[in-house]
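Protocol check, entry for the methods section draft. Step 1: assemble the input record (protein sequence plus ligand SMILES). Step 2: submit for complex structure prediction. Step 3: store the structure tokens unaltered in the notebook. Ligand used here: zinc ion. Step 1 record:
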Amino acid sequence: MFKWLENHHRKEILKQPFPVQWREILKDRVTHYSFLNSDEKNHLEQLVQVFIAEKKFEGCNGLEITDEIRVVISAGACLLILGLPHDLFRKLITIIVYPSTVFTPPPRAGLFITQSLIVEHPQTAILGQAFMSGPVILVWDAVRREARHPESGHNVVYHEFAHYLDMLDGVADGTPGLHSREQYRIWADVFSREFFQLRRKSKKGKKTFLDAYGAKNEAEFFAVATEFFFDKPVQMQKKHKALYDVLSDFYLQDTAERERHCKRNA
Ligand SMILES: [Zn+2]
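Step 3, stored output:
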């Protein structure tokens, strides 16, 4: 896991101690950080430190990029890869941040690689977008609110970075690069069953645990399931155990046990 530290440039970055103010931001603004054990906190801080040093954050519509914005976004993104190879976000260069909800026109053909473009709601309000070769676009007021309130089950940072992981193989199909052939088999089985179940229920207007937005297509299903895996893992494990298990085997994190452990010791 720590092979990445061998990279000279990163070694230099990590020679600097993790800024105390950044740790305060994590404690105050990122609820999931408090669920981590000390090794995980340490690893997340290293990932965040490198992520911030290597990525470019651009504020739009007058938004000035602050440490809080950098740290909260980076923590959400890096939490997804806490158990995965650190290099998965290597090619991502820019994160564009809007102060509040944005309305986007449909993308012009050729502007990005359209085959793997995720457009959440063309011409309507969006909280984020992810593109195969970057950038990732986020809306700060949603990011800030959701990082503190996992009980909502919504987290646009997890959502967009899950899309990014999904698209690393060139297609937004709801299946990121898995660890074994056997895992692909189980993933296809569980995901298709769960996806069509969500579709059926949401079509009938029935109440669902997972957000009905996940019924839009396979890519959205994976992004929505990822939000619940990190935000409401104990409930997800109870209600959708097979789905929880495949996500746990992919992310190599047991978020439900993490949350239970934290609550036992609270
Ligand atoms: Zn999406």
